[in-house]
Amino acid sequence: MGITELAVLKWLHIMAMVYWLGGEWGVFNTSTHVINRHLSMEERRRHMQTAYHIDILARIGIISLLPLGLHMGHHWGVQPYGGWFLVWVWVLSLCWLALCISAYFHRETDFGISLTLYDEKVRFVLIPALLLASLASLAGFGPFNVGPGQYWFSIKILLYSGTLMIGLKLRFIMREWTAMFRVLAEGPNAEVETRLENSLVVGKRLAYVYWVTIASVAFFGATKAV
After folding, report:
1. Which domain holds residue 97?
2. 218 found inside a domain
3. Of 52, 36, 47, nearest to 193 (Cα)?
4. Predicted confidence (pLDDT) per residue in 104-145, tens digit
5. CA angle at 66 for the pair 47 and 60, rounded to the nearest 5°
6. pTM above threshold 0.70
7. Per the structure, how many domains does the chain have?
């Protein structure tokens, strides 16, 4: 059969899922050392840098999944909009990706924090749009096609929007870490240390829900069970 457009999209989708899930696991484990007040600030900062280096791969993965999923959905007939709609989906997604990567490279500066805030604003718009589209489709009002063997796509979009919500909270936590490390660089601060530890407790609880939801997204995409 040769290499088809759909086959390439599937490959890219698998790669994005791998880096997304694997990256989140790496950040989860590295973050434990970031908040360890018994380590030197130099070592903790090194672990935080490692967390950021791993996290950017997860961020690239999660952003890439949206245009890839909508593009493949059109091939499968569950997402009826092709042509210029997909062109704009790819253009806007690449702009979002460029914003995310730029924020990563400038992460320890005020400019980087500003870029991160814009990244978060994108999610504030995208999350309700995906939630509305998926719920309306499941109720039979579109925009996605539903019917026997077609519900899986809308369910997958719904779960994906849920991961964006969890990911947004995790983005808040990592942005707070950058600000709190600036304070700790000036000297010991028990209050900030406690805030760091509390943020990790919240982040780890969210991470467990995150992994289950990511696995569910992959399940419906792979099996197309409903």
Report:
1. 5-202
2. no
3. 36
4. 999 878 898 899 889 999 999 999 999 999 999 999 999 999
5. 25
6. yes
7. 1
